[in-house]
Design a protein that fits this description.
Length: 67
Amino acid sequence: RVHYHFSGNNWIFGEISCRLITALFYGNIYCSAQTIACISLRRYLAVVKPFLYRRMAKSTLAVWMCL
């Protein structure tokens, strides 16, 4: 994207790479938001339900994060 803006909004790398870069960009945003949501959920459980949180297996929490 930096090269695109510096070259006067002219993409020289082809349409396939343009679509790939765009998909990677938005995929990164989506994954980052999901990771922050999962971290927030784990911290919420640790504060509001500490005994339940300690009983839950770490593998169960990891599976939740993957979904």
